[in-house]
Amino acid sequence: MKYFVYLCLLLLSLESAAQPAVKAISVPASMCGHWLKTDGSNGFVIGIYPNAVCYENETWRIKAAKQIQQRWQLQLENDNSKKIIVTIQRKDSTTLLLGNIAQQELKNICTFNSNYRPKEATFHSPLFTGGNALLKGQLHWKENDNENKTNFVQLSYTDVFTGEEEYLYADLDNQGRFSLPIPLRMPVICSLINGRQQLGAFLVQPGDTLLLAYNFVTDLNENKQDYSKLMQSVCLMGSEAAFNNQYQYFKRYVTNDEEKKSDAVTEQYDNVLRGIDRVYPAHVAEQRFIDFVKADARYNYVLKLLKSSRMGLDSTALQKIYEQYLSQETPLAFIHDNFYKLAGSFDDYLRRSRSFPLVFDANTDIAGRLKKDYKLLLPPNFIEKNDEIRQYWKSNPNQRLNEPVITENFFNGNKKEAERFMDLHSKIVREFEKEVYDSVAYGLYERLIPNASMRFALNLQQLHGNSLLQEDIAMPSKYRITIFENHSQLSGLPYHQVAQIKTARIMKFQIAAFEPMQDSGNLLQIDRELELQKALKAYRGKTVVMVPFSHYFEKENVAQKIYRLKKIQERYRAKNVVFVKCIQPRNRSDWEAILFKYIEYFSGQQELNNVLYCEGLASWRALERETREGIIIYNSSGQLHHPQYTYVTHEQRRKENFVLMRELDSVIAGKGRYYEQYADLLMRGDGKKEQTWTLYDSTGNYFFYVLNEVNEPIPNRSDSVFHLLSVKDSLYRESDLVLHRLPQTDGSRSSNNKPAYTKSYQHAGPACTYRYDRSTRLLRIYDDNKKLLRTFRVLLITDIYLELELIPLQGR
After folding, report:
1. What gap in Å lies between CA 523 and CA 544, rounded to an integer?
2. pTM of the model
């Protein structure tokens, strides 16, 4: 995570350009704050900051401010060039007068009126109708607080139609304002963050327009409930403003404070319910809000109850939980961000408590289903090969069809092709198993869960998450979607919309879901140094920035990195720079599932281009160490730029970032720093002693060395003989190092005692001389008669790594 945060901060620095300077016009500090209605609603009317204003659900720049006697007149302008004049006057320490003639009295503290009754509102109907919402915002930071903030906000919410968390981003201008369109399929609870700071969680419905104001200057005391202070910190106006301002208080104080009073889950739930009744009487919040937060507390309680049971719940206990807490749910439950999570946990326990079949029916016509449902997804001749194998098995029922038999009899000993066939066949068979698994699960839910909303949530979890193995790609077949739709036709619930979304996804990614590397667009697999060098040569003439993506796909991290990458690409669009996304796999069984997630996400962001899948490259690890943050830069001639910075401490990240920004600019300007120009100095070290490099890997004409001799075999390799390259001054010598394992004595035979080795050397030839041309990066080796023996191009050299490319001699 430390690596990812640092990388993102690098990307942030590169996109920090060129915000146009706006002259700041400040109003007195005494006028600043969030000013609220005094009728008991505490409605947010106006937010005033030194050079910005939130008013009438808009953010405004202060173009001019002048004092007339005790009043201040503010000339405001929004992004649409609309201009208004607002007059304000401070009456006392808690009161502001808004207006010129007819003045409205506002407070910077919350006020309550027992005679006030909130206006009762409703959720949109029909509930599952899509549309766009618009969130605008104004953030105001403490002076000189640059450490924790970023120049964008991130919004997230759970899309129950897909089972995925969605992430959206918006830039902040130099006054801390943003505008973020939100595509929705239904009302949702969204979360908004800036850097490490949680700004709020709030309800958004399709068609809404709302504004969030956040003041970092207000310090909240986490140990004391203070509604007035919270409203001065975070406040919303526009659609659902009353609901959302109450919700901030509920999430921050009511839930947390009441749960702290007890360690017992049931007592925590009872305390929260009592807290809701105490904090939200009829004159404070509408009944819709009270019902909503009580349901929120109930789902949170049941989720904790399931987790705290540690898999000790049987079917009787689960049925009791359902009847007591979940049997009266309505479709409104899907608005809650914890209801879908609860359904997933309940589904897991319910399936564990029942006997589910783990194999498909023996009567399943595999050959027929292959031709009907999978023919277009499979490689040529797959079905024919499957028919051959089935016919062979029918003719030889007593012979076991294991991997060696299939490889030898049907693939002419080609183990790779045989493994590919068997892997695809296993995936399809697992899909057949999932179909039976789905049917049994849906039938079970119909018998045990009469409530339509709870049953639909369980059906969704079954469809989204039914993977028999960790390495399965979560992509249901069309047949499984049909099974889901047939079992989920429940009134008022979006079974058809879910089926449409899933079907569209299959149509787009059905081939990649079976073999990601076979349908990966512009994704190029890189397994050896030779392939990496060929890929880099294809970009010759451009500045290349290689951006790594970890094997451990975390959607939030990937989404944020792609967002930043797009900003950088836009900035350097006209500067002949190409940004290459490098996915770094691990030797894990789920590599295809992870790769598919990248393919799907990159495709959705129109970023499925210039993608490398770099597996186990020693030079890549070397470059990562050298560049620290993982960003690798090559100039237009293919030379590797070595940055002139080092990562020092967390506090210096921002300062280092701006140095990093200059690194790319310096390469583009032809002022990069390239160690290859000084390879002769690096190879021989300080020149006082011979410097030795050990060959770590080679492929074709490419040779990768690490500094110093090895003292034991390299992990995952059985080599005992290692090629050495030694240099001192202008002398060049090659030899072989042989490791001899010493026999262990009886007293040393323990699991913690590593084997010991002795060394011997086999010289390949006499010492030669070398010359290095810094302009061409060519390393030439000569014999005693000054005859040219070999020529290498230095591709990479650091204080511990060296990569050479052998250049064929002309005439040979």
Report:
1. 16
2. 0.87
